[in-house]
Amino acid sequence: MSIPRSQTVFTDSAEFLSERRNIRQATIWNDSSVNKLWLYNLHYFDDLLASSASRREEHRSFIDRWISENPPAGGNGWEPYPTSLRIVNWIKWSIEGGDMYDSAWHVPHPDSETS
User: Fold this and answer.
1) pTM of the complete model
2) What is the DSSP letter of 31?
3) CA-CA distances (angstroms) from residue 76 to 3, 23, 50, 64, 67?
4) What pLDDT, in 10s, does the model give residues 53-68?
């Protein structure tokens, strides 16, 4: 049995480590002026497991946003620890009925050609 988690990500802000920040800008994911642990928490997607997660539609758009704003193999989100937690959280959310889609699981290799 898991312990219900509180919501941490909201439409335009996120709160981790008792600090709430605006997350509207694409630069937030790797903002060097923000504590690295706070940024790691943003990349974890723990909010997918919050007690209200099943009723919140913005998760899918937040995942879409992460994919578009975090190109493969660059930035905080691709470091091993946040990557491993994010993958686990995406899987758990998907199992619980979250609207995950095939393209979210495909990440092209940075050296591959795109057409």
Assistant:
1) 0.81
2) -
3) 27, 15, 23, 17, 13
4) 655 677 888 898 999 9
Contact 69, 27 (CB under 8 A): no
Q: 55: which 2 tokens? A: 């009723």
Q: For strand 13-16 and strand 19-22, is the pairing parallel, antiparallel, or unpaired?
A: antiparallel
- Number of alpha carbons in the 13 Å side-chain half-sphere of residue 76: 18
17: left (phi over 0), alpha (psi -120 to 50) or beta: left
Tokens of 57: 């539609």
* pLDDT at site 115: 45
Collapse the DSSP code of 19 into the 3-class scheme (helix H, G, I; strand E, B; otherwise coil) and give the result: strand
Cβ neighbour number for residue 107 with a 10 Å cutoff: 14
pLDDT at 99 over 90: no
Q: Which residues sit opposite 20 in a β-bridge?
A: 15
| pLDDT value for 113 | 52
Q: How far is residue 107 CA from its own chain's centroid?
A: 15
Residue 34 binned pLDDT confidence (cut-offs 50, 70, 90): very high
